[in-house]
Design goal:
Layout lengths: L4 E7 L6 H11 L6 E7 L11 E4 L4 H4 L4 H22 L4 E4 L3 H14 L2 E6 L7 H9 L2 E4 L4 H10 L12 E3 L19 E7 L6 H10 L7 E7 L18 E5 L4 H6 L3 E3 L9 H8 L3 E6 L3 H5 L7 E4 L3 H13 L1 H15 L4 H4 L1 H8 L5 H11 L1
Parallel strand pairs: 1-2, 1-4, 2-3, 4-5, 5-6, 6-7, 8-9, 8-11, 9-10, 11-12, 12-13
Helix pairs in contact: 3-4, 4-5, 5-6, 7-11, 9-12
Amino acid sequence: MSKLKHILVLDPIAFSGGSKVSTKHVLTQLEDKNVRVSVLTADTKTWRHTQAYTKALWMPVALEKAEQGLAYFARHLLIALQLVWFRLYIGRIDTALAASGPGVDLGLYIAKLILGYRLVQMIHGPVAKSRTIGRCLLHADNVFYLESTSDSLCTALSAAGCHQALSELTHFQTFNNGLPKNTWPTQCQYDNAVVFWAASLLKWKGLDTLIEALKHIHSSQHIDTHVCFIRPEQTTLPTSEAPQDVMNVSWHETPDNLDEIRSQSNIFVSTSVKEPFGLSILEAMAAGMCVIIPKDGAYWDSQLTHGVNCLKYQAGDITALAMSLQSAQSDMRSLKRLGKAASVIAQQYRAEICFGDICEALATNAESKTSALTRREVQG
């Protein structure tokens, strides 16, 4: 029997979110392959029910929120040292998965200089204009990115002196998120209208927009609403308050029965500002829910059609969102029709289709000749 390929995952973000869920979905597609997985994480709860070997990442309070300057580099150097120390316990590493973005995963790039593994980078959201980030992108063996992040990637690469189009960089490739068969969302109910919202409390996720829209609806028409939220930790970004005292709203902090709560609902509301992908939207579609999304040019706005497989409202318009909610709850037949149409589209986003190339990149031991050639061309 051939030796198991060893994949290392760095997870330095202290709370759960879409990119982390996507990473776990990718790893489920490797379970029938000849691999083992080790995770160094700042969020051990997320990995509790996986087969991965997990170790907690340590970070002093003074460096937890460092995002610039010497403290930022000190933070990632400390992560790199822990990765080298982790290597002593887990053995040779064949491939590392940088699952968030170079600005977050920098420690993996530093440790790569010592440990020599292949590095596969996934990009779930826009990256900052940074020479360091650009250089990391050039030194990854594979970069898989959401199409919506392409402009920011080009900007970061230009800061590092690379002015080629992404299509000319052979180690860059787009991907879409997908859902595994074994965790496919449960079909929602169509008996009575119930609203469902699920995201973190980061301000840009728009919980405040939903709450204000619900307050705009007359008390006689109030809709039962489930708000499932993740409370961010170790972040400098602004956040919303939860729970709040709002009529007919049930609050659930990081619930273990998220799928059950979703299946008891049937109207999904997205209030995020230009969501790079929107994994929770895809999950709602897979459950057959009527999805209400903003008209903002983001991914699902470009993929779905108002009145055919979703309802759309003008982004940030609280009155328009309230009207969409009322429209959805007033016609269960239309709600079901929109939900069923959305569920058909969701079938195109099965994990075995969406993550095939990423899994292949993770499971190979061979050094990427094309990315090495590209780097020589850039440096030359």
